Amino acid sequence: MSLTLNAQIDKIEPPFWYAGMQNPELQILFYGKDISQYQVTVSNGIKITNVKRTENSNYIFVTIDTKKVAASDFVFTFKNNNKETFTQKYSLRQRRENSAQRKSFDSSDMMYLLMPDRFANGNRNNDSENATQEKYNRESPGGRHGGDIEGIIKNLDYIAELGATTIWSTPLCEDNDARHSYHTYGQSDVYKIDPRFGTNADYVRLAAEMHKRDMKLVMDYVTNHWGIEHWMMKDLPTKEWINQFDTYTQTNHKRTVIHDTNAAEIDKKVAIDGWFVPSMPDLNLKNPLTLKYLIQNAIWWIEYADLDGFRVDTYNYSDPKGIAKWTKSITDEYPNFNIVGEVWMQSQAQMAYWQKDSKIAEIQNYNSYLPSVMDFTLYEATSKAFSEDEGTWDKGVVKMYDNFTNDFLYPNINNMLIFVENHDTNRFNQTYGNDIRKYKMAMTLMATVRGIPQLYYGSEIGMAGDKNKGDADIRQDFPGGWEGDQNNAFIKEGRTPGQSDYFNFTSKLFNWRKTKAAVHFGKMTHYIPENNIYVYFRYNKDETVMVLMNNSNETKTVNTHRFKENIKDFKTGKDVISELTFDVTNEIIIEPKSVLILELK
């Protein structure tokens, strides 16, 4: 990406745009010393529909109408009262063919979540590239370890071998925070890939390499906040660009106030407008200039990098009306584009409120337009259930059963992101003491119930991590991602026997899942657990899959007569993992802490 700036201009955002967008209105930010004193005109007969000046004379926001304007270069002319004049070229680029109808991720996919700084260091030359603050220091648990985009590209075949079809990478845009910037949720330039990860062109190349493998790239987008080192924080366009109080005010994190009919207004204000932490200024989505900036930035990345979806961080921390407009603006441009929001709530009704066309939210005349939400209540269930050996009214596998009994609350139950861990939680293998039997039960659940399964990097080789020791412990380096690593788990020959057991199971399971439409979009019937055994079916008109999960510490004999409405006239079932065949007409014996995935014949 290159943009030649006139001496009087320090920044133009978006740096260029695209012809033929459904919404032809384009708001261009020009930043330079006292630039608002200039009058603006534009060439090629293009119409300026609005010029917005704020209290900061270093900004001017110029809105043009791009309707019926072909991909081309044109020129803005700036002239002040002293008849001083300068010009600035701007470009509309040609969109990719069929860009608006791009296909996104859905429940036929498996999503692999990785943190680029901790995944693999593919280019040692960028480890401290242009680092104004934090430089490479792999010895520091919370420091920069050097993982980058090149490291992801070099290991795409490994990720594909797992059965993953989609990658969600935590943010890659520049983060110049003084400490802990490796996670890049405190971004300092949202039009620029952090040089320690690579370049904008590298990110485009990542998407292209993934598309060659029929894989999809999901960008982690942050609408709620930026980093304190963002270039605008040195010279805000307007005080209203971010949410500010008389003294520093942190969010109360109680997002329930948004739909709580009894909530106090001050509690709502602090929840929505309060800062996440002191180093993350809270963006004001009630301000039309800020909102338009974020909408255009998101669309620019979709077009520029050829993205396949978004995961939105802290989705319901933002102004509800503003975030709904942001979301709808994107899906209006790309009707098939999937966006999954982080809505970390403890109630399914509260999570369902945030999914597009929710009947619950409709009561309050609200629609978020958010296609997908993350299933945090299922995560909570799986973080406890597999150590509850005695199945009782509310213990053991009944936790998962109870979670699915509330599926009726969601407008689109297939479009849920399901997971047993992510970059903010305790590692699953840590929680369960690296008991691979429990890992197999959890992964089977992820692979066979409704929704889009998400796997966190390293789980598939048994990586653990204790969040009580700090975030760095749950974000450890992937073994083999750095020169000199004694253990290289990216290749078959480099894995330990234990890592191989985890990897081989995961790969076989999720590669099988890729072919099973009944699991992707089929119906589900589940049966009330008995003796800590959970039985459910996924089926369509062509195929039926029966799953049996024994969460007890004893071998059990399961009488199948109870499941006749799903077994019907099937006689046998072949287990996906062991490839053994079981008679399903009478009894099935299942080992303790184990699962069977039976394709019925």
UniProtKB/TrEMBL annotation:
Polar residues biased stretches: 122-134
Stretches with biased composition (Basic and acidic residues): 135-146
The organism of origin for this protein: Flavobacterium yafengii
Region (Disordered): 122-146
Record's keyword annotation contains Kinase: no
Protein's name according to its UniProt entry: Glycoside hydrolase family 13 protein
Alphabetical list of SUPFAM superfamilies matching this protein: (Trans)glycosidases, E set domains, Glycosyl hydrolase domain
Swiss-Prot/TrEMBL keywords: Glycosidase, Hydrolase
GO molecular function annotations of the record: hydrolase activity, acting on glycosyl bonds
Domain Glycosyl hydrolase family 13 catalytic: 113-513
Domain of life: Bacteria
Pfam short name (any one): Alpha-amylase
CDD domains assigned: AmyAc_bac_CMD_like_3
One GO biological process term: carbohydrate metabolic process
